[in-house]
Amino acid sequence: MTQDGERAVVEGDREDRISYLPRNVLDRILELIPLQDAARTSILSKHWRYIWATLPNLVLDYHLCRTLILESESNFKEAVDDILLLHMGDIMKFVLDASGARLSSYTATDRWLLYVTRNGVKKLNLQVSNFDTYTLPSSIFNCSTLTKLTLFKCVFKPPNSFLGFQNLITLYLQWTTFLPTTTTTFCVIKAPRLAKLTLNSCHGTQYLNIVSPGLKSLYVRDNHYYLFLNCFINCKNLRVFELELDDMFNNPKHDEKSTPEKLLVNLPALEVLHLDSFFVELLSAQVPNGLSFTLNCLWHLSLGVDFGKMGQIFYALQLIKSSPNLSKLDIWVEFTSNNAEAVSKNLNTLACLERPLDKLKYVDINGFESSVA
């Protein structure tokens, strides 16, 4: 074979294999690089010209937004306008994280959300600013395609016509403020398919009423827990329940004490339970003679315990005794008692645990600073 022939064979072997990968693989590759770099692939060839513009997932992350905003706010808004204007097809996921900015107006944000909610968005992650609260536009409440909604520092005030999120499966709300509608005293969220709910340091939860009979996972970090936890009593399918206090407060009222216990009694399928020391203290005041229920499905128990308070120790032991299928136990020591010898003696009494923990496999104790030999 001639030298030219050999060169032709070698050059023929240089096939563009990346361009002809399956489309879902190409989409995934572009999703793993910054959006502005994905846009630059349009100049590679005719084949690549419109691939980035049809990406189903648009992620405007913190780094991209901050870079554009540092140039100018108008440049940032124009860039996002151009991205959405050039986009073709449905948008499955939209992430906007401009948390490092203090925007002069949120009119453009309202416009972007109107666009994505009209284009079939299913997963929406919104963090507009760390400095201001952003009032959600009506387009969010009218979006029937949402399956996952993540909001940071937003004002959640649904219009009177709000019928709920019929397809929502996951709802994560942090630093979100709830306001009732103009015709009721509550902020009602009907989500029949909701399976996972997180309420982290939100405000106005006293107005909240969530209708979600199929809920399976609930995390609450809030001081007004007792005003809205009752709406979950009928969630018989709840598997995971985590309850923490946002800020410590003293002398809770009777209703504040009894609400967590009422909920626990009505959760027959509960598998994972986490309570911080405040709620262990509340519940210990309700069960001086032991628990009136058994958590037969519970396999993972996580408790914050102040070992300087015998009531908390007693209630923690009661929960352990009432969980016959417990296999994993996490203890978060909130305070190591100065009277460690008395605590150790109490734990070593024969009546401490009346039944063997045959299924317990893992025990993790965090924050313990001293022990008695």
Please tell me about this protein's structure:
- α5 runs parallel beside α6 (107-117).
- 29% of the residues lie in helices and 21% in strands.
- The chain has helices spanning 3-12, 23-31, 35-40, 62-71, 73-86, 107-117, 138-141, 225-228, 254-265, 277-284, 310-321, 340-347, and strands at residues 57-60, 93-97, 123-127, 134-135, 148-152, 154-156, 170-174, 177-178, 187-190, 196-200, 208-211, 217-221, 240-244, 272-275, 300-306, 328-335, 362-366.
- The chain has 373 residues and is α/β, with parallel strands linked by helices.
Compile the SSE list and pairings.
Layout lengths: L2 H10 L10 H9 L3 H6 L16 E4 L1 H10 L1 H14 L6 E5 L9 H11 L5 E5 L6 E2 L2 H4 L6 E5 L1 E3 L13 E5 L2 E2 L8 E4 L5 E5 L7 E4 L5 E5 L3 H4 L11 E5 L9 H12 L6 E4 L1 H8 L15 E7 L3 H12 L6 E8 L4 H8 L14 E5 L7
Parallel strand pairs: 1-2, 2-3, 3-5, 4-6, 5-7, 6-8, 7-10, 9-11, 10-12, 12-13, 13-14, 14-15, 15-16, 16-17
Helix pairs in contact: 4-5, 5-6, 10-11
